[in-house]
């Protein structure tokens, strides 16, 4: 689809397309045209022009989300283009704004907001090289450290009289930990003040996580993601909540196995209750993700203290029982849930009626539903259709890993065409594409052993159903090993190295113990 451009935008494109001319002429450009020229430069990947626009930014704020979002001059949203050329030019331009020799009285910029940048799987920029959240964290912290070093060298005292708040989503792992710590420690003396509004940590020791989270100024934090290789358990979470307050926290993601009720003692029950009470004090909290924890029979204890209804809940693979599902279905959260992930639960066998009660309560607001590996079979499809029919705002439906035949999928897709807001569907490889006798959930070693030609034929048929219903706006896919995760994709080399190291250490311990026994 071609996006319409205004004459102003076409003129801006023509102006910035000649980088040398544009850079020489910026001094004569009206201040209110800078946002227009910035978006045009970003679209055309004119890195040098972007750098000079930011270096000479004449306005009080610089908000990436707004600058790249839909505008009257050009409706296409460019905020999902994490183009390395453009973003590096932006950030180095910001550093050079500080270093620029013009009078500090001419410098109006007070606020830079980098949080509106969206990391997505498919990039449309020509260079095809992205700068993800981890790399943006790395570069900004390096530039801050460079400025502090130059300030200490006092190349020009007047240069550093500016003070600019930079809102950013930080992503910290072992590899960039020291750099980020140094930037946060020197925040007071740096003209660029890092303001962390979202924090993601992966592949960090608990000691380092607790140290750096205190440096971020938790009172500003809106989103906290502690994932994968941060070995946070329930007692550590209680320590975190007891020692640090998160008054603005809206979204919390916890790593796998944070909770494990199978080895609970009476003291653990009290710890869980304390965590629930602490979360109840977070009056802004509306998104909670705690996949792969074992929470059987404890959802009520954890969620009942919350005073604000949840809009997003991920309890995938949490071994929920009927009491847990009954609590969710009858709680005040049910009417507000916009995104729900119940993957890894045998819904048809364990609590079909309670699940559909929950679905009916959230149907008027539900936007995203994930039911992966839920043992949904052909005999359940009509009931599923009945449950999904009121969900007229549903935009995303993911149900890979369920034992459905190609015939059942065709029936389901015919219904999905009727959901007006639907944009993304992740469907399973049909059961009849696998060898007879395959058991579900399918083991990783067998997940790719299916008839690929037959799958392609079925996928074409399903897309044809959408096409004939004029629903070519719906994107379909079968991600065999889970949905795309930009953060994991960006740091997979580091995480892979960590896992190999952990495996090697475990093997060495086992060998040592075996030798001692021998």
TrEMBL record:
<comment type="similarity">
    <text>Belongs to the PRAME family. LRRC14 subfamily.</text>
</comment>
<keyword id="KW-0433">Leucine-rich repeat</keyword>
<dbReference type="InterPro" id="IPR032675">
    <property type="entry name" value="LRR_dom_sf"/>
</dbReference>
<dbReference type="InterPro" id="IPR050694">
    <property type="entry name" value="LRRC14/PRAME"/>
</dbReference>
<keyword id="KW-0677">Repeat</keyword>
<protein>
    <recommendedName>
        <fullName>Leucine-rich repeat-containing protein 14B</fullName>
    </recommendedName>
</protein>
<dbReference type="GO" id="GO:0005737">
    <property type="term" value="C:cytoplasm"/>
</dbReference>
């Amino acid at each position: 689809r071609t996006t319409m451009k205004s004459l102003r935008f076409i003129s801006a494109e023509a102006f910035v397309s000649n980088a040398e001319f544009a850079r020489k002429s910026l001094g004569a450009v009206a201040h209110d045209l800078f946002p227009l020229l910035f978006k045009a430069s970003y679209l055309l990947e004119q890195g040098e022009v972007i750098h000079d626009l930011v270096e000479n930014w004449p306005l009080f704020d610089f908000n990436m989300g707004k600058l790249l979002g839909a505008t009257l001059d050009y409706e296409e949203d460019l905020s999902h283009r994490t183009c390395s050329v453009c973003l590096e030019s932006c950030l180095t331009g910001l550093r050079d704004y500080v270093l620029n020799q013009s009078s500090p009285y001419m410098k109006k910029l007070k606020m830079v907001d980098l949080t509106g940048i969206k990391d997505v799987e498919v990039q449309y920029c020509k260079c095809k090289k992205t700068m993800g959240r981890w790399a943006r964290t790395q570069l900004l912290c390096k530039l801050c450290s460079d400025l502090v070093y130059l300030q200490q060298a006092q190349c020009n005292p007047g240069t550093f009289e500016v003070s600019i708040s930079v809102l950013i989503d930080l992503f910290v792992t072992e590899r960039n930990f020291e750099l980020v710590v140094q930037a946060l420690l020197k925040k007071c003396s740096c003209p660029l003040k890092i303001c962390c509004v979202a924090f993601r940590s992966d592949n960090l020791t608990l000691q380092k996580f607790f140290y750096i989270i205190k440096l971020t100024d938790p009172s500003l934090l809106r989103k906290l993601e502690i994932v994968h290789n941060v070995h946070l358990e329930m007692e550590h979470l209680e320590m975190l909540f007891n020692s640090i307050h998160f008054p603005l926290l809206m979204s919390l993601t916890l790593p796998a196995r944070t909770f494990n009720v199978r080895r609970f003692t009476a003291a653990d029950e009290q710890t869980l209750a304390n965590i629930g009470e602490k979360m109840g004090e977070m009056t802004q909290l509306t998104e909670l993700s705690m996949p792969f924890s074992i929470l059987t029979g404890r959802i009520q204890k954890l969620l009942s203290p919350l005073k604000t209804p949840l809009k997003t809940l991920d309890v995938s693979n949490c071994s929920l029982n009927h009491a847990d599902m009954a609590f969710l279905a009858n709680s005040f959260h049910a009417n507000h849930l916009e995104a729900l992930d119940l993957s890894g639960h045998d819904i048809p066998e364990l609590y079909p009626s309670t699940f559909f009660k929950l679905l009916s309560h959230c149907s008027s607001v539900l936007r995203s539903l994930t039911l992966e590996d839920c043992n949904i079979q052909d005999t359940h499809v009509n009931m599923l259709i009945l449950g999904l029919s009121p969900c007229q705002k549903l935009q995303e439906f993911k149900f890979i890993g369920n034992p459905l035949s190609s015939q059942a999928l065709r029936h389901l897709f015919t219904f999905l065409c009727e959901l007006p807001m639907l944009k993304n569907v992740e469907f399973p490889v049909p059961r009849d594409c696998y060898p007879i006798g395959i058991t579900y959930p399918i083991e990783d070693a067998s997940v790719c052993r299916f008839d690929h030609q037959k799958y392609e034929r079925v996928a074409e048929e399903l897309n044809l159903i959408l096409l004939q219903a004029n629903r070519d706006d719906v994107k379909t896919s079968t991600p065999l090993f889970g949905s795309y995760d930009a953060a994991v994709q960006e740091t997979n080399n580091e995480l892979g190295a960590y896992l190999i190291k952990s495996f090697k250490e475990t093997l060495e311990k086992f060998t040592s113990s075996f030798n001692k026994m021998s």
